[in-house]
Design goal:
Blueprint: E1 2-4, H1 8-17, H2 21-27, E2 31-33, H3 35-113
Parallel strand pairs: 1-2
């Protein structure tokens, strides 16, 4: 609680009569404020509120950062699994191309040798040489 005294001279006169007035007031959780000290008190309170708001923002930023980091960790796991699946898909595709080239095309060419006139030529698919980029390990 703040007790506003409208002039410095009034507080000075009261302190001349009772030297323990300030201490007694503080024990009762009362701040004696004059026009001179009241402005400083208001500035100190405003500063305290700003510091409290900054601390609250810092806590919120830390919480959001922790949450984002956890989400990134999960996302990284998903990417690693997806990369493994892509690698497996490319490998399976290349095996199918190899099988087509070594097992299917020779049989199809025999039809042409036997006089079948295809409307389209069979072109063997090209194996993929694409490797998914890996995710570097965390340090």
């Amino acid at each position: 609680m703040v007790l506003f005294i409208p002039g410095d001279q009034f507080l000075s006169a009261a302190l001349d009569l009772d030297r323990e007035l300030l201490e007694d007031a503080l024990k009762q959780k009362v701040i004696l404020a004059t026009p001179t000290s009241f402005v400083a008190l208001l500035r100190a309170v405003a500063y305290g509120w700003r510091q409290e708001a900054l601390a609250a923002n810092a806590d919120l930023i830390r919480e959001v950062g922790e949450d984002l980091y956890q989400r990134l960790a999960v996302f990284t796991e998903h990417l690693a699994r997806l990369g493994g699946s892509l690698e497996g898909s490319v490998s399976a595709f290349n095996k199918a191309v190899g099988s087509f080239d070594s097992k299917v095309l020779p049989g199809a060419r025999k039809f042409v040798e036997m006089g079948v006139s295809p409307k389209k030529a069979l072109e063997p698919p090209t194996p993929l040489e694409i490797t998914p980029r890996g995710i570097p390990p965390q340090k």
